[in-house]
Sequence to fold (492 residues):
Amino acid sequence: MEFEENATIPWQDVIASNVMKRHKKNVVATGITPSGHIHIGNLREVITAEAVHKSLLKLGAESRLIYVADTYDPLRRVYDFLPGSFEKYVGCPISEIPDPFGCCSSYTEHFLHPFLKSLEKAKINIEPYKADELYKSGAFDGAIKTALSARDKIANIIDSVSGKTTPADWYPFNPICENCGRLTTTRVTGFDTESEIVEYACECGQSGTVPIQGGGKLTWRVDWAARWGILGVTVEPFGKDHAAAGSSYDSGKRLAREIFGYEAPYPIPFEHILLKGKGKMSSSRGVTISVEDMVEVLSPGALRYLITRVKPEKHIEFDPGLAMLKFVDEHDELHTGERGFVPFRHMVNAVQIARGDFKQLKGVLQRSGYDTSDEEDIMRRAGNAEEWLKKFAPDIVKFSVQEKMPPSAKSLTDKQKTALGELAESLEKEWTAEDLHDEIYRIAESTGMDAKNLFRAIYISLLGSKSGPRAGWFLVSLDMDFLIKRFNEVSR
Ligand SMILES: [Zn+2]
Ligand SMILES: [Zn+2]
Fold:
């Protein structure tokens, strides 16, 4: 099958079919350095990987979806959210640093744990690995020995790919200093692959030996290439910066083949997620939306749709406000008709009418014709809508049904009051949302007023504001006795 030029086939199936030309048994890898809050830019990587993983399974290949947390990477600098005292940990592997907030077993856990919980909530099943555990368990021992012995060859490959010049005393391995705990200030002074030790000297003045197992880490480009073979990775999405000419994927390809005897995985470079009006998301610059927020707001299906409807090589422009409501509508459109499915937009209105009262919410949904038998599902969706209202919704979609007649209703014109009286009479009959909406237009016409003024009168009577949710749909979801009473009260 040749898929490349066929735009009707989903991109993940195109990739999966290309991958299957190489491998029937696959490991799709994703991962991150958990050095700060993990934002939805990183979620793109995981969802992209999951999409291809699922396509592989669908097309009959074997596949596993793994997630490697780079917990053995050094702390790069004292980020804004860290106390100044963390200066002493800069250069230390983040798995070995305490939690700056004091609540978890380590720095990495503080950021990794909520992310993994969020993936669970989004029903994304991954097999997690932690780099520090892999190194400490000896999984990298063979690769480290190979890399130390092939130092010159590796330096040549990296130099020729990146155009840099590796220093003469460089080694592809960073020992962890026993005195200061850093791996960015040490250099290798010798090694013995027989006794599996590495000699080093550190800028702090310390020198000595560390074991190959758990005593340090391969440098970044080499680590990545070694990992592919160790974990059997055959497919990997990564930010497009790693895919540029001379970048880590380019050197990784050669290192994998020429040093470790393994073919680099099928690459899926992906673009950034841009936050509307704020540019590229970046946890170090504070331009973020947390993954935790996103899984509180979007259903697992909508979350995947947000990411996978755009090809990996294209930007996703993300606006969590009104545009997100429209986007979820688009997703929901594909699912209307499913039993018990309540569109997000409707749920946003329903939870505002119900104000946290579940019995009331069920009533609102039932009056609008939704099946509410799956209470757990209804509660989950209602929770999504409530979180969105709290975190991202613009004021224009927010409203609150007034329990007493709003004072502003007194200032409605006589025409408006007459029309509301007529509407109260009409409400004695049963209505579908659409027909009731038409009825409002008919009443406006018969009382010789612009429909806009009648809509305004309805919103002022119920909400005390000049606008609100689409009237026909809004009214049928409310209690009819309440409506009739209110409109009569206003019309008097
Ligand atoms: Zn913590
Ligand atoms: Zn040191």
Observations:
- DSSP finds 19 helices and 13 strands in the chain.
